[in-house]
Amino acid sequence: MAEGADGGAKAPGGVGRGLVENRFGFLALVLVALAALFGVAFVTRPAAVAAPAAVPGRVAVESVTAVCPDPGGARVSALTPPGGTAGTGGTGASGGTGGSGGTAGSGDAAGTEGADTSGTDGTGGAGDTARGRATVVEVSKDTVDPEGLDASGKAPDNSGKGRVQAVLDRPGTLWQRDVPAKAAPLRISGTGAMAAGLEAAQTSRVTDGAARGLASVRCAEPGASAWFVGPGSASADVVLYLTNADAAQAVITILVYAGEGPVVGDSGNGLVLKPGEHRAIRMRDLAPSPLVMAVEVRTISGRVAASARAGLGAGKGVDWLPAAAAPATSVVVPGIPGGGGLRELYVTAPGERDTVVRVKALTADGFYAMKNRETLDVPAGSTASLDLSTGIGGQPAAIVLSADVPIVAGVMATGTGSKQDVAFTAGAPPIDIGSVVADNRAGKKVSSRLILSAPAAAGKVRVQTLPAKGAAPAPVEVDIPASRTKEIKLAVPGGRGDYSVVVLPLPGSGPLYGGRVLDEQAPDGLYLTTQPLALARTSAAVPPITESTTVILP
Predict the structure, then answer these.
(1) Where are the membrane-spanning stretches (predicted)?
(2) Taking the mean position of all CA atoms in its chain, how far away is CA 414?
(3) CA pair distance 440, 447, nearest whole angstrom
(4) 277 Cβ neighbours under 8 A, 6+ residues apart
(5) Residue 47 contacts by C-beta under 8 Å, 6 or more apart in sequence?
(6) Consecutive 10-residue runs of the chain (554 residues): their mean pLDDT?
(7) Which residues, other chains included, contact 32 with Cβ-Cβ below 8 Å and sequence gap of 6+?
(8) Which sign, positive or negative, has the C-alpha torsion 260, 389, 426, 67?
(9) DSSP letter assigned to residue 17
(10) 257, 286 in Cβ contact below 8 A?
(11) pTM of the predicted model, to two decimals?
(12) Burial (CB count <10 Å: 0-12, 13-18, 19+), residue 421
């Protein structure tokens, strides 16, 4: 029996009660228990799994708009390929067995030249709703809003300029029209099945005068930025064409990078284009002295379709400057035609650092560094040029450039003869989802051809020609060896006529870059124009999406 307090003995629960009554002791027990639970959870946790890297995605387009900048006196061609580009997955598209070939297109149906071969009369067919449709309309304040068109696709009678020229509703059918002089820019807009792959181009042919030769341009998409690089205002008459084909106002800034550096001025800042408005701006009014230059058209608000044309003077040729790929540290300028004449490279470094650009040519024989042309020094914010005429040696080629800072690049090529013509190509992206060229021609003295380059792994493409009239021939498949350039002669059934061409990389193909060359033999000199292959308008890139608490937490 326990003794009382007077006898010195303690009760049996005295120690426990003292510990419980001690607040610090109880807290220590809680911390020990939590530590034990954490230890068990740490030991038994599942192995860490690396999160997949976020990559950009692509979504199919539902509508496409292209603007032909100055179609007066030219032929406008438009086409939506059947099934987009016969498989819009690019290198993921299905394909047959391989093979190589130097000529694309064969059969017995003849294509013919002429105006408006779509079979439409300006009204939609019964299948408009199911197949979608594309409208061809002069850009004006009355037609920038598609809701302003009536059920047949025509503008109201009181619209003045801007009436709808045609409604297209047949994928795979090439539509063409010779446009009268002094016409306004044409907007070609496709929706539904007529949107995927919709392509348009304008091509003029002039036999004498200051505009003698062939001049072709891909009709431009409205966007927030566009780059052009080539001769400057002191060596060419460069005209910039700006069109606002949207229903919202556009505010534009024009930046010029000359050989001496950025051209500073207020004339190109804050230009306002109202809905349906278009302007032609002579660059000598903004920058009269550059021998070489790059021009960036940047919108502060809204969108604008931008194109540029350069004329070297009577007897020296005129052509459009193709839109160049955005500044990057690695640039490929494809589609440089073979033959005689000048080949001049233009490179711009629009940033704040000087750079030394490494220059390589890629021909049918492979890569090589051209003697005394291996590098090009480009000061910050300026444009430099390099004569490649003897370096390329008259071969079809691409130029592969690398630098430590982002650059923009293009090439000028001239034809041969007592009167020369001129053509331009520019840095372009790989055609991983395919490419469409709307206007190609074949005849006794006229020819079109593709120049495809595979700077890395070997490439493989399917080439489909779509004549203006008659059945399309079976597509052909072409192999491009690794680190090589290959020229592909295009043909149509019957050997003459106008046609479009669809180029689609096949599964397993490496990155491919290309251009289309169109020329015509003339007694006083070669007519010449080129167009770098652009990505088909079948899908749009979307930025990568990752889960993050920063959206809701500061």
Answers:
(1) 24-43
(2) 24
(3) 8
(4) 141, 243, 244
(5) none
(6) 46 51 69 78 66 68 95 96 59 35 39 35 39 91 64 46 81 95 95 94 93 96 97 96 96 96 82 96 94 96 97 90 98 96 97 97 93 94 95 92 98 94 98 96 94 97 94 94 96 88 97 97 95 92 67 53
(7) none
(8) positive
(9) H
(10) no
(11) 0.81
(12) buried
Cβ–Cβ < 8 Å for 273, 244: yes
The side-by-side arrangement of strands in the sheet containing 213-218 is 175-178, 75-79, 199-206, 213-218
**Strand-pair category, 164-168 with 213-218:** unpaired
- Please say whether the beta carbons of 88 and 60 come within 8 A: yes
Decide: 77 and 203 in contact? Cβ < 8 Å. Answer: yes
User: Which amino acid does the sequence have at 431?
Assistant: I
Q: How far apart are CA 482 and CA 512, in angstroms?
A: 10
pLDDT at 92: 35
d(CA 126, CA 128): 6
Structure tokens at 22: 């001690």
- Both tokens of 391, joined, read 């370096």
Tokens representing 219 are 């009709």
Place of tokens 């350039």: 485
Helix (H) or strand (E) holding 399: strand 397-414
CA distance 447 to 492: 10
**184's tokens:** 């306004």
Among 459, 430, 463, which residue's Cα sits nearest to residue 534? Answer: 430
Q: Which residue in this structure is represented by tokens 């190609």?
A: 440
Q: pLDDT tens-digit profile of 433-480?
A: 999 999 999 999 999 999 999 999 999 999 999 999 888 999 999 999
Nearest residue to 102 (alpha-carbon basis) of 466, 491, 495, 530: 491
